[in-house]
Amino acid sequence: MIERRLASGLLRIVGWRVVDELPQRPARYVLIGAPHTSNWDFPIGMLAIVALGIKRNWVGKHTLFRPPMGWLMRALGGVPIDRTQRHNFVDQVVAAFREADEMVIALTPEGTRGHTEYWKTGFYYIALGAGVPIVLGFIDYRRRRIGLGRILDPGGDLDADMARIRDFYADKTGKKPENKGEIRAAPRRETV
Known about the structure:
6 helices; seven-stranded mixed beta sheet; globular
C-alpha cells in the first residue's frame, strides 16, 4: 500500500493525475498503453501501474535488459523479447495465460516511440487466443492524465475492434504528437 501512495504522490508532484475508469478489473487481461511517443512514457507509465496496484508483466526489446539496468527491468516485471528473430510470441503468451489464475501483460502496440503506419496486432491475437479482455490504458500529455479507460472484449473482427480502439484514443495526445502511430492493422496479404 505504501508503494501505491508513493507512486501516486510522485505523479501528483510532477503534475499527473492517475485515472481508473473501470468499474472492476478482471484478474487476467492484456493491458495496452498508447500513445507511445517518448522515452518518458515508460517511467510515467510504470509509476501509474504501481499507483493503480496492477501486478503486471510487460514485454520490451531485449536490448533494454542488458547490464547495467537489466536486473531492474526484470524486477519491474519485464520480459525480454528478441525482435530480431521470429519466435511464436503470441502462442507463448496465450499458453502462459491459460496456466495463470491472475495475469496482466502490458504492451505498447505501436512497438516504438517513432511514427508507425500500423499497430502491431499481437496484443489482439493474444487476448483473442487466451479468451481475455483488452484493457485500454492511456497517457495524455495535454491533460496530464494517465490510466485505464475501457475494457474491450475482442470479438474476432479485427477491423471493427480496431475502430473502437481508434475512437477511444482519438482525444489522447502523446508527448510528441507527430510520432503517434496510426491505429490500424497492416493490410492483409493476399495469397495466390
